[in-house]
């Protein structure tokens, strides 16, 4: 009887680990919720880097996180599938004077309706102990 209980308990632990419940293991990938604070910060950093590097006149904005995983390896690696949209706001990284990006009456001050989103896959390494904690890479050439 005791052996059967031990086998049952071991099988339950294995099934729980395979289902993705329980504590995260070092190096293992775990699904993240679309409202996870760390994932939202990583997504915001990815969209900010997109705005810095694509030289578009219009700013890209984060609409949401479609799905993602998180892995703890010398920091936290977020592998995220994002929904982004082009807003009616000027991209401050392409302007000579970034303070002029949002004058009075600019649509950035209001809630505007997003008409169309684009998928974007980004990998973000978060290392909080460093001065610039986010290292962002994109899967494909997005520019």
How far apart the termini lie comes to 64 Å
Q: From N to C, what is the helix and strand string?
A: HEHEEEE
Task: Estimate the helix proportion, in percent.
Answer: 25-40%
- Tally of distinct domains: 1
Instruction: Give the name of the CATH architecture.
Output: Roll
What's the oligomerization state? single chain
Radius of gyration: 20 Å
Tell me the number of helical segments per DSSP (H or I, 4 or more residues long): 2
Q: What's the story with the biggest beta sheet?
A: 5 strands, antiparallel
Strand content: 25-35%
Strand order of the largest sheet: 1-2-3-4-5
Secondary structure tally: strands: 5
Stretches where pLDDT falls below 50 for ≥5 residues? none
- Overall CATH class: Alpha Beta
Mean pLDDT: 76
- Under CATH, the topology is which? Nuclear Transport Factor 2, Chain: A
Question: What distinguishing features does this structure have?
Answer:
25% helix, five-stranded antiparallel beta sheet, 5 strands, Cystatin domain-containing protein, elongated, alpha+beta, 143 residues, thiol protease inhibitor, single chain, Nuclear Transport Factor 2, Chain: A, Cystatin_dom
Outline:
This protein is an alpha+beta fold.
Topology, element by element:
Layout: H1 2-19, E1 29-31, H2 37-54, E2 58-72, E3 76-90, E4 118-126, E5 134-138
Antiparallel strand pairs: 1-2, 2-3, 3-4, 4-5
Structure description:
The protein has 143 residues and is of the alpha+beta class. The chain has one domain (26-138): Nuclear Transport Factor 2, Chain: A. The protein is 25% helix and 33% strand. It contains two helices and five strands; from the N terminus they run αβαββββ. Strand 4 and strand 5 form a beta hairpin. The termini are far apart. Keywords: Protease inhibitor, Signal, Thiol protease inhibitor. Residues 1-19 form the signal peptide.
């Amino acid at each position: 009887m005791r052996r059967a209980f031990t086998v049952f308990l071991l099988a339950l632990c294995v099934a729980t680990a395979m289902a993705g419940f329980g504590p995260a293991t070092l190096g293992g990938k775990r699904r993240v919720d679309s409202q996870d604070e760390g994932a939202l910060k990583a997504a915001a950093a990815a969209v900010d880097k997109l705005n810095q590097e694509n030289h578009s006149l219009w700013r890209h904005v984060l609409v949401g996180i479609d799905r993602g995983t998180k892995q703890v390896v010398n920091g936290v690696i977020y592998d995220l599938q994002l929904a982004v949209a082009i807003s009616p706001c000027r991209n401050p990284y392409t302007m000579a004077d970034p303070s002029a990006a949002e004058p009075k009456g600019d649509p950035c001050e209001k809630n505007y309706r997003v008409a169309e989103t684009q998928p974007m896959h980004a990998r973000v390494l978060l290392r909080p102990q460093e001065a610039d904690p986010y290292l962002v890479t994109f899967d494909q050439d997005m520019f």
